[in-house]
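Hi W.,

Here's what went into the run:
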Amino acid sequence: MLAPTPQPTSYDAPYWDAAVAGKLMLQKCSKTGKFQHYPRGHSLQTHGDQLQWVESPGLGEVHSFTVIQRSFYENLDAPLILAIIELDEQVRVTSHLVNVGEKEVSIGLRVKATFKPNEGAWPTLVFTPEGT
Amino acid sequence: MFPNARIVGAHESPRRKAEVHPYVIFHEVISAALNDAGLTFSDVDGLCVTAGDMAEGGCAEDSIEVGDYLGLRPTFFDSTDVGGCSAIYQTGLAAAAIEAGLADVVVVAYAAAPRRFPFAPEVAWPIGPGAYEMPYGYAPPPAYALFAQRHMHEFGTTREQLAEIAVTCRANAANNPHAPKREPLTIDEVISAPMIASPLSKLDCCLVTDSGGAIVLTSKERARDLNRPAVRVLGYGAYHSNVFLSQQSDLTLTPGVVSGKRAFERAGLAPTDVSVAQLYDAFTITPLMALEDLGFCKKGEGGPFVESGAIRSDGSIPINTDGGGLSSNHPGKRGVFALIEGIRQLRGESPGHQVSDVDVSLVHGIGGFFSAASTLLLAKD
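Here's what came out:
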């Protein structure tokens, strides 16, 4: 069984195009100033199209995490650290924590986004401890 | 709520490892549930089904396909897939359909063989929200591990407290001849079992079985002529929120907060009125959070509550009396089995631990990654 690789669609192509350039783009409601992620074709606040793409510094903290000891997918090797990251923009993303030992991870750990290139596929957003 | 609808038949397949396609299990369990009710296929005009995840063996498994395989031509039908709680959700729809005169005899059924046909996420979720989640190795155990980790962080819940749930389910399974896991289990054994996704070990996770189940509903009038003790639906609530955890504003709350409140309000009942509860147990964290969200204890106090023995067979609110998904039966969607055990408790027919003097039987299911919930409050006619 394989974990799927992402396929951009009409409303989120700008996210993936920026990811190739190593930039994390988030959608911001231009009426309320609130961020949203994953990308959508409309603002969750107004249900209208008042949306702009904003580059994020990619800083945030670990909201929850788990060390997967038994991978369910042939294309992902265990152990790996799956985490929910709360970005400083107050949106959460699912990701992997890399370049960090399992025992060094805790809820609240400050982290920074980076894109890992994948040959023949879209890049993967991962996080490392801030300052590393 | 639903003064004219009655549950008159129920059957859980004894199968746990199928040598057959799920359609064969559908036929077996629906035949047996109709027989239990004293009805036949020709009486059925309503069909609600859910099946395994995404095309087991290439089948769509909606009500058209399953109905066609069975030879049923219903005029009321539903194949809503809200994960594990689908059959509980559909029981509310079926009762409402009977109430409104849309159907006379409704079958709610589920069958799946995930051991024969494993879930295939690579065809399910490459676009949309899944594109931001599934590439990371998302699956039920790590997702529920993320909930558990956050609950432990915020409230000091311990692995021992989670393990108590697995131990309780195992004790209830001891007498259930169909439960694959019946030997006694200790808290230490749960904690020292191989880790799947921290903090959940293998014994914090449900079994994976091939099985099926069905129930039959009809009108109060028609139920009078049948030979089975009828069960009423006193309360019903449903709710769905987010597909994935990243969209959930509070990882310590589940959609059971809303489905449970609605069910209790509509029934005019409170958690203290409940004699026995079937709480969906895909993982040990799942019923722990349900106990909080349904109001059996306060938010954050699920750990000390289970540690006190409250959920054991001699406690104030026995749960998962057949052994639950942790020790008895869990294909992809356990809801129908929780429902059948909730009905058996009212009939005095539990194969696991039968609670004495059951007045109100609660059945609570969740779907996805705490994405949906449905709650039923059942009572004898």
